[in-house]
Structure formats: structure tokens, C-alpha cells
Description:
3-stranded mixed sheet, 9% strand, 16 helices, mainly alpha, 3-stranded antiparallel sheet, CATH 1.10.630.10
Amino acid sequence: MKTAYPPGPKGMPLLGNVLQIRKNKLAFMLHAARTHGDIAHFRLGPIDAYLLNHPDHIRDVLIERADVLPKDRLQNKIISPFFGNGMLISNGEEHHRQRRMAQPAFHPRRLDSYARIFVEQALQGMAGWRSGDEYAIDAEMLKMTIQNVCLALFNADATDIVARAAAAMTSIIELLSTEFDLAIPIPMWLPTQRNRRKREAIRELDSIVMKFVADWRRSGQDRGDLLSMLMLAHGEARGGVTHDELRDHLITMFSAGHETTAFTLVWAWILLSQHPDVEAELWTELDRVLGGRPPTAEDLPQLVYTTMIVKETLRLYPAGWLLSPREPHEDITLGGYTIPKGSMIFISPYVLHRDGRFFPEPERFRPERFRPGADKHIARGTYIPFGIGPRVCIGGAFATTEAVLTLATVAQRYRVSLLPGQSLAPRGNLALRPPPGVKVRVIARKTVAAAA
Length: 452
């Protein structure tokens, strides 16, 4: 058995690789993987960290040993002030219980009703657009996805809270990113400006989700949505959901449910604008399948190329670019190396998806990788935009359906063209974010129905 550390980038005394990571997280992880192989060792201050870059090791950690490799306690300390003990943080039986409670809201049979919401909100979001005008595409997509998650999961109209929610989430992401970079949770009791901003953002999100609760209580009806499931469980005499659990679930679903899909759509518009051949093939499919009418859930099996575009976008720019680190509670062996107790094990879909061993020409945008039949060559554990194993993202199908139908609805009616001269470098924060305020020009296009 190997006892030496795996190879990895050199760091500084005491700090380890913290400064390199702070400078550019994405570049650091890519370089570590490409230079040092399937397991790269680095240090976050005094903490040993390991980046896994092979599907065999990833399946071992996320599937075979998922129950004995829980989420890292340090990360949980950093994000718990915001997300409490929801599904992002909980481990073991508590996590399984929370998933079982929420799972019915994400059952495939519910996607039909969600699909109508996704299309309606895309149409409403475009209602104010004028051909030839310029828009910040991230703000436009966030309007749609915030409404989608609120209407689908909470049966709540979010028109009046979009700006507040977006501002609160931006603040939270910025605050969390700094603590992740330093690998140091900053105690909430410290009287700092950063903690004041934390408390303000937490209060803002709390007020948003608890308004959903208050509105539900006024009607008291089981609407079959996630909020109803949680509220009815909250009212159970024994074994139900406590007030804190209710809040944590709602914050988690609200936060994770809108930003990630909005970012995926922004990247899709950027990529389509840069690849007119792909854009043209997308229009051909939309005109052939839809003939000018809005898409429905029944159209999804025929929107093959649209789905391929979304999958390839998620390969290049997975919103969950870095999965929550795992922490072994005892020494383990991985790839012939001993991984000590208390280490942090990292897995980056962003890095893995750009490995030429698994995806030829990995930097190229090629939706045909995911053409039905061709994707059978993608080994399990190499394409993981939503993770893999028992902690796979519960809303993966929800998010994919939302992205496909929103993309189809908008692209059917408009060409979304990226304005030149903008920085497009991705930002590896809690989620993989495009630069804020990416500007596009929308040009109305003639659909088959309009031209007939």
C-alpha cells in the first residue's frame, strides 16, 4: 500500500494552496487534474485535500462508500447559517428521511404540470421584449426560473420578489465563496460587516419563504405541491417537520431551484450565439416539431436536439461545478493511496467533463455527443452534472425539463445574440456563474406558423 501523498501542486507553508485557489479556483482544479492525474493532493491550510479525476474513484466515493463518506463538516459549518440542516447539509438517515419526504414533488408524473408552468413563464417573461432591444440575459432568465420554482413547488407567484431574491442570493454566494476559499467558517457572533451582510441576506430569504408559508396557512388546502407536503407534515403530532426544518427545506429548494437553471440557460445562449450552425439546427427542429405553437410535455421526446444542447451545455458549464467535499471518518484506501481521516475529498464535474480521455475535444461545444445511441459510450461516472449515487440532485429531471422547455420556447420566437466585447470567463463560486450582466440583443424570428 502506498503511504506517500499522491502528486499535487506545491503550496506555501501554513497556507498550503489557499492563495492559488483564491486567485482562480477553476484554473487551479483544471491544472491539478491535468498535471497530477487521477488523484491530486493539495492543502487547504493544515487540511489535506484530494481531487478525484477518474470515474472509478468517483463511483467508489459517491456510490459504493456513500454511507461511510459523509459530507465534510467544515463545509457544513460554513453554509449552515444560511441553509440550516436541509438536504444540502444533512447526512445519513436524516438525509434519507428528508429525500423521502420531498421525493413525491419530483416524481416524473408531476413533470407534465410543471411543463405548463415552464412554458407559460417563458412566454410571460418575453412579453415585454422588443425585437432589436438589448437585455441582461442573466436577469431575464432569473425572472423565469424564480417564477418556475415558486409556482411549481410552492404554488406562489414570485413577481414581486424577483429582485429581492436575486440580490439576496448574490450576496450569499459572494459571502460563502470567501469562506470556502479560506476554508475557515467565520463565527456569526463576530461583530463584522461581513456578518451583518450575512444576517441581512438570511432575513431577506427567511421573509420570502415564510410568506409562502403564511399564504398557504390562509387557505390550508393540500395543493399537491412540495409546500403542501411539508406543511401537512409540519402539522403532524409526532414525527412531523419542525418549524426550523420547514424553513431549512424551503430555503434549500428555493435557492438551489432557480439559480442553477438560470445559469445553465445563460451559458446555452452564449454557446448558441457562438455556434450558428448549432443554432440553425435547433431552429429546424423547433419549426418541424412545434410548427409555431408553444411546446408541451408531450413534445419532449421529439425535442431531441434541444435536449442534446442542454446536456452539452451542462457538460461544459455544470452549475454544480464542485460537489460537496466528503470527509472520511477513518483512514481509507483509494487508488492505492491512504486517504487520512479528516481529509477533504473533492470531485469536480467541471474538471471531469473536460478530460479528453472521456470526452474527445473536450473544450469544443458538440451537442452530437449526446445524440441517442452515441451517448452509450459515455462511461458511468464521467458525466455527472447533477452528481451520482444516493445524493444525486433530487431536482435533476426538474431542472433539465425546465431548461429544455424554456430554451425551446424562447428560441422558437427569438434569436438571442451575444453582444461583442464582453468577458465571458466563468466564475467558480458556490455555483458556476457566468459574468453578471451578460448583454444580448433579441431579434424576433419568423416561425413556421407565422410564415404560413
